[in-house]
Here is the input.
Amino acid sequence: MERVATGIDGFDRLIDGGLPKGRTFLVTGGCGTGKTLFSLEYIFNGAKEYSEPGVFVTIDATPKTIREDALAIGMDIKKLEEKGLVKIIDASVARIGIPSQEEYAMPVTGFDLDKLLLETMRATKKIGAKRVVIDSTPALGLTFQNSEDVRKAVLKINYVLSQSGATSMIISEIAEGSKALSKYGVEEYVVDGVIVLHYLEAGAGANRLLHVRKMRATKHSEDLHPLEITDSGIKIYKIEEFRKKR
Here is the structure.
């Protein structure tokens, strides 16, 4: 099976060298665990290190915030945009009826999943994107009435992304203390892999941890792995490495 290297320091060795190509994966976790930065680095590394253009769809944060947050850990997304290697689709302000200044954006006539996917595919085709991120399903859920609607939406996203040939990530979230794997409890069942990010209280040895809960067609690590957000990006450790480091 062909694999797509994320380029995230220490992560690919946990999943047989990379993500199964052309499939869709869920990145999920609580507040402050690093979900958006993890997926942003996946897009950034793809464009910069592997010449694989990427599309990042932001439904919560504005593109300006995304660029600033990425730059804070050494990722100049704007430079890659100028080279045509990355496109950010702004679906954040359309939900409140404000027009976006971005090249790729949702119309102010209202948020609509089909329109969002069409815009995503337009950007994907324009730059020949090999990687796509949608951040996030909880923001999508604002337009749906129940978990069955969310399930249908995630199934549609999964199908459209797989048809594009891109290797994709969708982002969800978990409430503090919840045993669920996603906001609606359905996203994890329709994707090909689940990457869970945890945040522990200070004094536990590592504030952030990563767990590969599910990865189809892959012999993957089942351990919890310390995760650090550094000035040069995300780093994933094995427990023994992290202990030596400290």
